[in-house]
Amino acid sequence: MASVKDTSTHIVESIGGADNITSLTHCATRLRFQLADAGKVDKDKLDSDPAVLGTVPQGAHGYQVVMGGGVADYYSEIIKQPGVHASSDKDSSSKKEYDGVRGKYDWVDYCFEFLSDTFRPVLWALLGASLIIMLLILADTVGIQDFRAPLEEQPEGFRLAHAMYQSVFYFLPVMVGATAAQKLGANMWVSAAIPAALLTPEFLSLGEQGDTVNVFGLPLVINSYGSQVFPPILAAIGLYWVEKGLKKIIPSAVHMVFVPFFSLLIMIPATAFLLGPFGIGVGNGISWVLYQINDFSPFILAIVIPLLYPFLVPMGLHWPLNVIMIQNIATYGYDFIQGPMGAWNFACFGVVGAVMVISFKEKNNAMRQVSIGAFAAGMLGGVSEPSLYGILLRFRRSYYRLLPGCALGGAVIGLFDVRAEAFVFTSALTTSAMTPQLGYALGITVAFVTSFLLTLFFGYRTAEEKQADLERIAREQGESVEEVAARSEFKSHKGADEDASDKGGAVPASAAGAAATGIAAKPAEQDSIVLESPLEGEAVDLSEVPDPIFARAKLGPGMAVQPTGNTVYAPADGKVLTVQKSGHAVGLSLDNGVQLLIHVGLDTVELGGEGFEVHVEKKQRISAGDKLISFDPEFIRSKGYNLITPVVVTNAAKFGAVSGETGRVTPSDVLLRIPPKPEEAAD
């Protein structure tokens, strides 16, 4: 076995040498490199060292080397080597790496991240408003009340319903101003007050929309700022720089009084005279360009939009299109993007619907839970993220089933030149917001059915992925792999997702080990160590973790918990082996001999400690039930991180096959059963 020093030297050589390392940090289990040229990495050479548990490329310049619980020792040894430069967790690991233009230019990367983090919190309110709009349009469709009738002609109840959704759109600039400032680090309430001033009756009393009035000898153009998003974004950016300058010249003792005072005094007029009209012009200009493309050929636009969305959403590039949809509604009274976007959504839901059918047929409990939740969120709410991150990105072959549905559905929608009469999330409940409804309904049906049938009859997994699933299901159900495969097979096809038994025989259930999940379904009960869940949530098989290192049990077998609580507790007496300053992970050495890693979320080290509070320190004695880590689930999820928490036994070689309990768990419920080695149990 190579020493830590030898392995560290080997890693540096394999990564392209010290000159290729621009920065290095580590989390609970991984060395996180930023490289000048990722093409210099010799992956085969890296993997040849048994101490290296796995490698994970990240974007254009990032590279992770998984070392397990001893990662700090390797980190300490590597940074001693000449030419290697470490960096703080906050400086380097808080940045995400991307390919293409986002990887080449930091400001482009930050612009997309800024837009994403600005609009993500607001989408909750937009989704609720869109369903209220759906109800009103449905009432219009069945002849109860004209949706577009002047407000004074609406019955009182319908006026209230209009106010319920209009509140979100009219005051959208206030919400965007707050979230944009929060992302930038400016005061979110001062930022919200800036666009709010332009929505007051006092401002609107200055004149009609489009009028130019004289204020202190300066021309002021009166605009309607309700539903606008670019003006508050520009105002938030301006506020950030104004606050930064004011804090340098105003004594810190009076910051609370005079920084907001001068900020409002400067930024409200600046927005009214300059930034607001400019922001409206930017939004109108982008809308005009897309309008011209749509005017030239709605058919082409309707095919391109749904084919782009499956690639835009994972990179966060779709957020600007939401802005344009709202801008189109405000400018033209309708939108031409939401209709084609529906083809992408329903092709996505078609894939998920087929996965749900397959999972029921296979008795695949893990995928059944994922697909049911994703399908419901999509069909009823128009939210595609659960489908995308739970299935599509995890099983990349599913994209071959998705894209034909996007293209065919978009073509049908383009033929009918479908337009959205209001901003809604494209779900089964919001069809009535589209014109013509029949054309839109036909388009999304074609998208759904195409992707559904392709997935149903040709599968969504590679042969290797399916074989791993069949082995896991066989262990859970106490059946043979052949029985599960026979039950899951659709007799009418033989696709890429065919059984591994057709390629040389299946692995018997009794011999199926922990290669895929690290879990054995029939645990030895006698003399087993029983560990309770360290946190409250939904326990799932480790294979459900969307990270190949955890999913393949590279760091050890165990389970994962999708948390519903916000605290990690000690599952038994012992001591703290290691705890990350960022608070996202803790390693324990329990008195029963088990070494346990609890890793809160995926890539949450990039938060640099934000959203986490650590209650223990390294080498500290702990008792069962002691608080280890507290975290803010809403904040962490708002930053785009998956909170699924792997709980793995890192010294599993000392024990028998580790097993776990799925379903709802609390810190008083059993999560893991760890039996002794078979030969020890026989003594």
Automatic annotation (TrEMBL):
SUPFAM superfamilies per the UniProt record, alphabetical = Duplicated hybrid motif, Glucose permease domain IIB
Determine the domain of life of the protein's source: Bacteria
Q: Where is the composition biased (Basic and acidic residues)?
A: 484-497
Localization per Swiss-Prot or TrEMBL:
Cell membrane
Domain PTS EIIA type-1, chain residue ranges per copy: 547-651
Report domain PTS EIIB type-1 positions: 5-88
Principal subcellular localisation of the protein: membrane
**What does the UniProt keyword field contain?**
Cell membrane, Kinase, Membrane, Phosphotransferase system, Sugar transport, Transferase, Transmembrane, Transmembrane helix, Transport
Any idea which residues are catalytic in this one? C27
Q: This protein is called what?
A: Glucose PTS transporter subunit IIA
Species per Swiss-Prot/TrEMBL record = Corynebacterium curieae
